[in-house]
Every structure is written in C-alpha cells, then in structure tokens.
Write a structure and sequence with these properties.
Blueprint: H1 7-15, E1 20-21, E2 27-29, H2 30-37, E3 47-49, E4 55-58, H3 63-73, E5 79-88, E6 100-109, H4 114-131, E7 138-143, H5 146-153, H6 160-166, H7 171-182, H8 192-198, H9 202-216, H10 226-241, H11 247-257, E8 260-262, H12 263-276, H13 282-298, H14 300-305, E9 307-309, E10 322-327, E11 336-340, H15 344-348, E12 357-362, H16 370-375
Parallel strand pairs: 1-5, 7-9
Antiparallel strand pairs: 2-4, 3-4, 5-6, 6-12, 7-10, 8-9, 10-11, 11-12
Length: 376
C-alpha cells in the first residue's frame, strides 16, 4: 500500500524553517548503536557482518548517522540539516507497519539559545504533520534528564542512591529498583566472593575479579570489563545487606514518576515532588515555562492541549532534555517525534566534538493525508 503523504511535502514543511539536505549512511557499527540508543533496541535491529568480521546493523534511526556525518564534516555553526530515508527496526508488540519505513527529519546543531531551538523543532514537526493532514495533533512532552537530575541532587542513602540513579533512564527499571529498595523484592544472600569484594579498595576488587575470571577460564563479552563485573557484584551485595529505604521517600519518587497531565500543572507537580526530596527545580520549571510560552505564541491550540509526562521511557537513550511525540490522539502511534541530545556528539567522538543538538523525524506512513485532514 502506497503512502498517503508524499515525503517531499513533509521535507518542504520542515525545510520552511531552514535546513540543508544531506545523505546519510545506512550501515553503522552495531556496538555503537547499542551503546548510544540503548540495549533494549537490540531485539529490534537488523544485523550484518562486514568483510573483516565487524558486526554492523542497518540504521534504526536517522539521528545517529546524522551525528556521525556532522562529526566527519564539522560544518560552520549553527547549522540545520534535512534528511530522508528508510530506517530498519522491527515493530514493538502492538505496533502496525513493517520493519522498514521512511522517515523525514530535521537536525539542528550549535544553536546558542536551546529553548528557542527546541521550540523551533517542535513547531517544525507540528507544521510537517499539518502538511500531512494531521490538523488536531496531540503533543506529548517529556524531559529525558528530569528523573536522573532530581535523583542525582536528592540526599538519598547508599547503596540505594546509586541503584536508583542507574535506573533513572527507564521508568520500568527504576520501579523495580524502588521495589528492591523498599524490601518488596528479596535479593539473594551475597556469596563469599561478593562479601570479600565489599571490603576491598576498587583496584584490589577489580584485580580479584580478573584473577577469578582467569582461573575459571571465562571471557567477557564485548564492551564488558572486570571493573564492570566488580561494580555489579559489589553493588548487588551491598543492596542485599542494606536496610530498606524510608517508604515515605520512595513514595515521593513514585509521585514524581506518576506526574502526567496538562503541561503547566504537570510542571508544577514536578516542582512540588522534587521539593519534597529537597531539590529545587525552579530554574528547570522556568525553562519549560519559556518553551510553553513560545509554543503557545505560534501554535496555541497544540500548546493548550499539550501533555507533560515525567516518567516516560525514551525511545532512544540518547535524549538528554526535551523529547516529544505528536500523534492523532492519545492512543495512536506517533506520527512525529524528536528531542534534544546534547551529549551524543561527544559520545560518538570521544569528546572531540561537543555541540548542543536537537532534532525531529516525521513518519509519512502514520499521517492521514491532506484529503483526510480536510475532511476531518
């Protein structure tokens, strides 16, 4: 079945706010994609082998290949890029459509005003969806760093503080760690090695793990080290031996994760929950208020109906600030999505390139088409 929306129309709508067309690679190093997009994506990727044996995968999004091209070219800043092409990832359970589909996107690098750039990208996505017939969009806003930031600044007891912060990027993982911290999920009694590692300095504990691995003739998988194993064993043992966290504190964290609703009241609810954890989020709230004001000036209907969700999983783990979805209704799959990913360039270049970045993609196959939009 053909697309009801011409990708060219989407590209023109995105390009109305500026942008130079670029071509992007389709094959990427698999380890790189998994490290940056998140291990949860592995089951949805399509893999290939290079002639030298390196594991590759077909691109699952357009943001990572765009960032790699940016690092290679290092254009004058600020710059906006437009891109179009197929991406390849298996659908989640409940999703419709095939494993390959067209996306059209916009990426912005090096903007001096991140709030203005965020709003420009959201507005570009809204305008592109309107060009594809989506005239009454539902805009869902979130913040990729919100929960991690609050937990990092809250005065939480160890070892639970480290455990909760490690799970902050995934609400399901965080809720499981909260259940462990509450004592609701029993942890196995630490073994002799685990208990011994707790009493050693980090370098001594790492050396002990290396020795055990050597004696057992065990090898670690790619991307894993003896230090990783040591930290995991020590953390698990300390959690098993620790007293449960104060249930009142865990209840506040749960309240933060549950914040969802009209954007402005939801922002206030986040501030209130953070305050109960001893964290001042007033500056964060001011930034979000500025974004909502800017959106309301150009897209008043979408801004008025916008929903903010605090405890929402990111589709890709690299989102570091605002991220958003645009859909036909609350139950529909997103026709457009995007967000801020300021740390991605640095992660891809080992710190050699570090620029603010924000972008979006639109899926023409999830848009109703101009005729359908006029008839709605």
């Amino acid at each position: 079945m053909g697309l009801r929306v011409d990708p060219q129309d989407i590209r023109l709508a995105l390009g109305a706010r500026g942008g130079v067309a670029v071509d992007l690679p389709a094959l990427l190093p698999a380890s790189l994609v998994l490290e940056l997009a998140g291990e949860d994506l592995r089951a949805r990727l399509y893999f290939a082998s290079a002639p030298d044996g390196a594991e590759l995968c077909l691109r699952a999004d357009l943001t990572i290949p765009a960032a790699l091209r940016f690092i290679e070219e290092r254009p004058a800043l600020p710059v906006a890029w437009l891109h179009e092409g197929k991406v390849f990832r298996a659908p989640r359970e409940g999703e419709t459509g095939g494993s390959e589909f067209v996306q059209v996107g916009l990426e912005r690098y090096g903007d001096a005003d991140p709030v203005a750039a965020d709003c420009d990208v959201v507005l570009a996505a809204l305008e592109a969806c309107a060009a594809g017939g989506l005239t009454q969009p539902v805009l869902t806003l979130s913040d990729g760093d919100l929960v991690r930031d609050v937990l990092a600044r809250a005065d939480l007891p160890e070892p639970w503080a480290s455990s909760l912060r490690a799970g902050a990027g995934n609400p399901r993982a965080l809720r499981l760690r909260m259940a462990e911290a509450a004592g609701a999920v029993p942890l196995p009694e630490p073994g002799a090695l685990d208990k011994a590692l707790i009493g050693l300095a980090s370098d001594e504990a790492e050396a002990a793990v290396e020795e055990v691995l050597a004696l057992s003739r065990l090898s670690l998988g790619p991307g894993r080290s003896a230090a990783d194993v040591m930290r995991r064993l020590v953390g698990k043992a300390r959690r098993a031996l620790a007293e449960p966290m104060d249930p009142a504190v865990l209840a506040v964290i749960g309240r933060l994760l549950d914040v969802e609703g009209p954007a402005r009241p939801a922002i206030e609810a986040v501030v209130a929950a953070a305050r109960d954890l001893g964290v001042d989020m007033s500056a964060w709230a001011a930034g979000w208020s500025a974004r909502l004001d800017a959106l309301a000036a150009s897209a008043p209907a979408a801004a008025a109906a916008a929903v903010f969700r605090a405890g929402r999983s990111r589709n890709f783990a690299y989102y570091s600030g605002l991220f958003f979805d645009i859909a036909a209704d609350a139950a529909a799959l997103p026709a457009a999505s995007g967000g801020r990913y300021d740390g991605l360039l640095a992660a891809l270049s080992d710190g050699a390139v570090d620029q603010p970045a924000v972008g979006c993609v639109v899926r023409p196959n999830r848009l109703p088409g101009p005729a359908a939009g006029r008839g709605a």
